[in-house]
Request: fold
Amino acid sequence: GVQTCALPIYWIEGITLYESVMRSADSGDKAHLSNLARQFDRLALELLESDWAHGDLKPENILLDESGTLRPVDFDAMFLPVFAGEKSPELGTAAYQHPGRTAEDFDASIDDYSIATISTTLHALALEPGLLARYNRGEGLLLSPREIVRHGCAAHAECLALFEKAGDAVPSASASSPRSCFV
Reply:
């Protein structure tokens, strides 16, 4: 038989994280971008510690509600423990998924790469909002997973240089390995 899960449904008013990032970067608001980065990292920690995954985590699927809290939305690619052993119904947005991900990669860790991508982007923009004007690619904002794997992503290199200059990262050969997080 088919197993079902009764999840509560809520209506959330707000703007997407994508919209908030675009506005803040356009106005050079480092403080707001830094706040968004910290808020996202708190949300990310909750997701990483859970036994479920969103499946299509991206700034367009995270709302900044009226109280200023980040809330994920659009759970149609979600992994729940009851789905263990199943194939993913969809792979999520390519700009936020590891380029090697397949339908067989369907477990609680499927958000790890998108979390690293979003966190890296937010923290880099908090240091240098002008990155968005130089590297905005629409989907993915700054980073291209396929270019990073091929060591050809100028935005990724500039992010790492910013973090190193700020004392937040140490250069590492593993930072560009296909399954690694970015910093």
